[in-house]
Structures are given as C-alpha cells and as structure tokens.
Amino acid sequence: MPEDEFWRHKSLEEMSREEWESLCDGCARCCLIKLEDEKSGEIDYTDIACRLLDHGLCRCTKYAQRTTLVPDCVDLTPQSVRTLTWLPSTCAYRLLAEGEDLQWWHPLVSGDPDTVHIAGISVRGRIVSEGEGHDPEDRIVDWPV
After folding, report:
1. N or C: which end of the chain has fewer CB within 10 A?
2. Distances in whole angstroms, Cα of residue 119 to Cα of each of 8, 21, 96, 113, 124
3. pTM, to two decimals
C-alpha cells in the first residue's frame, strides 16, 4: 500500500502529528456551536460558528491558540474521537475510528482541498458568526449531522 494512503494502514494512534492534522477535511462542522439537552443528552447543531472560524476558508484563524482563546474548544485525540457523539458522521476522525474509509471528497483522497466545499459538506456559505447577537435556540439546523 502506498505511503501516501497512510490512513488505510495506520491506526489513529500510529499516525504522526502531521498525518493526524491532515485528516481534518476542512468542513468546520465541529466549529459550530452545539446545544445539549441536559435531560436527554441530545445534541443540536446551530449554524453559529466559533468566533475564530474563517468563514471562507473553513479553518481556525488562531488554531495553535484555540483551546486557550476558546476554553470549550475540544482538542481531538485518538481517544476522544471514539467517544465524542457530536462529531458529524462525515468526520474523517470518526470514520477512521469506526473502521470506515475516507469519502471521495476528502482532500487526501481527491487531492483537492476544495472538494469538501464542492460536495456541500463544509459550512461555507451557511453560517453566521458567534457574538453577532444570534440566539442559538433560534439557529438550530439539521444539516451538519
């Protein structure tokens, strides 16, 4: 198997930091504000994006400092992706943790970072910014799941 398809022959734990980071497809769905029902544990996604998200690039503008600047930002690890129920079903980390392969639109498969946007998987063009006075209860959406 070619080395450039590392995700097909390495476990999440065996990946280098560079390989791990390259699994992020740039959809930014994990950067959406989510609401959790305290009684049922059900998670609702909103179309409100973290204040650090670049809406066009679908990338964090302060990635290295994100967990300091946004204390509830989750740092994904091989362990956490196996337990985070709110990760979208399209998330590469979740797919690989569940023994699935990457989708055709993933940049590692397609060779093009824009296919995630072309396929309609990313949040590009569908979000508003946190801190603009939006009530999360009024911004619940079903498309990220």
Report:
1. N
2. 22, 21, 20, 11, 11
3. 0.90
